[in-house]
Amino acid sequence: MSVFAAVMTGKGTGAIATVQLFGDSAQTILEKIFKPAGTISAEFQRGKILLGDIIDGDNAIDQVTIGCEGQNCFAVNCHGNPLIVADIMKLLQKHGVKLITTEQMLCKILSEDKTLNTIAIEAKLAIPKAKTVEGTKILSHQIRAGLTKTAENWLQNIDRLSLDKIAAEAQRILQASQIARLIIYGSRIVIAGPPGTGKSTLLNYLSGREKAIVTGIKGTTRDWVSATCQIGPLAAELIDTAGLSEDLERERANMESQQKAAELITHADLILLVLDISEAGSRLDDRLIEVLAGKKTLTILNKSDLPARFDLAKLPQSLTNTVRISAKTGDRIDKLLAAARKTLGVTNFDPAQPVCFTSRQQSLLQELSTPKSKDHTRSIITELLNRW
Ligand SMILES: Nc1nc2c(ncn2[C@@H]2O[C@H](COP(=O)(O)OP(=O)(O)O)[C@@H](O)[C@H]2O)c(=O)[nH]1
Ligand SMILES: [Mg+2]
Fold first, then answer.
1. Does any ligand 1 atom lie closer than 6 A to the CB of residue 47?
2. What's the pTM value of the predicted model, to 2 decimals?
3. How many CA atoms lie within 13 A of 103 on its CB side?
4. Of 63, 84, 207, 271, which is the most buried if we count CB atoms within 10 A?
5. Which ligand places an atom closest to the C-alpha of 282?
């Protein structure tokens, strides 16, 4: 069997870096390139930490410690200069070791652990990629509780449980997973609304940077600009669109950006519809209202620092989830963030509840939610857990 190596620590300079070695002949490789301090030969016993030099013939590359994690698994901790790490990787390659990515290495190590099912492995692989601490908590819960526990219960009691009950539960999990996805992987929030209402000002305020151009001339944001921001504990990608204009005929040249804005809205998790409350006359475009139908929308009544002239009674029923702010002064932005979280449905989410978080799990749960036979349900649950 081949020996594999991967750099497990982040790119760039650090105090130390870790190179993981994995494979049946990993020890044989180390015997060739590791010279223990003080003694003649090293004892690569599980649980031991060894000190010594990584050597290329007579040339010592770096002093390291080696954590013996298993018969075929070793963590080589070297100094964190990327040039030293590169030298060690080159040396390993010279000895026939295959270089793989951190994620591939994690997959190999985790698959060795026979106490983990596939859901648990997927959770451990997803944890480093989660966008929020809350997201990591949700994923951690799925390892021994959450989805793992639910699937194990189904399997154990399959003769007692009705297929409809399992199907209903699978559907509930799929629904909760839509919210979990936003917490784990972040959400996409599109800022829409007529020109000049303060969309770009709001994006700049929320992202803490001057990303979008703000001017007094309507229709300055011809294309779209995006920035990341933190909505409470929620990571969000904010997208500023060109204003969907009131008079499409007059703005024919702007058609392409209008089309793009409509497309962005369709794929967003939440829309912040920005209106200028200091203007009495700004009429909402019917096309915009149409595009927003069925989307989670929060209507931002902006420019609260100016006298209010906008008649709220003009708002269609679907857009009455409102919050009044000033994007210029930052007044009541905290209320906007709280309202955004509430509209997205991420407040008070119990991280211990079962959720799915990979497309593999999602499609299996979808199959469970339309049951065919007991045998079929049993085989899908087994595949979901996929124990070795
Ligand atoms: N008084 C006041 N002016 C604002 C506010 N938000 C934006 N503006 C101004 O409104 C104009 C248009 O803003 P902009 O962000 O470019 O609007 P957009 O076209 O919707 O992106 C600019 O002159 C901003 O300074 C606000 O809360 N209060
Ligand atoms: Mg703009």
1. no
2. 0.80
3. 7
4. 271
5. 1
